[in-house]
Amino acid sequence: MQVNVFEAKTDFSKLIRLIESGREESVTVARNGRPVVKIVPYESTPVSNRIGIAKGKFTVPDDFDAGNEEIAAMLTGGGV
């Protein structure tokens, strides 16, 4: 479905309902007959699919936190 900018402004809520209900997959908004933007449904990633997504992709060195005291001293104004 393609609408012009004026139509999109006038019927924005109606266009959103069409997409939410599944009657339209997307709505293309055109200016002077040239497509400019596409309105599509938002698809969020469930949190359960994001947690652990990088597991096995990298390794943390054994000395990763070796300089914690020195860094803390620098950030809190203490001497090194």
Total helical segments: 4
User: Uncertain regions: pLDDT < 50 for 5+ in a row?
Assistant: none
Shape: elongated
Helicity level: 25-40%
CATH top level assignment of the domain at 1-42: Alpha Beta
Under CATH, the homologous superfamily of the domain at 1-42 reads: YefM-like domain
- So, CATH architecture of the domain at 1-42? 3-Layer(aba) Sandwich
Q: How far apart lie the N and C ends?
A: 65 Å
Described by strand count, sense and barrel closure, the largest sheet is: 3 strands, mixed
Strand order of the largest sheet: 1-2-3
Q: What number is the mean pLDDT?
A: 89
Backbone CA Rg: 25 Å
Number of strands: 3
Structural class: alpha+beta
Order of helices and strands: EHHEEHH
Beta content: 15-25%
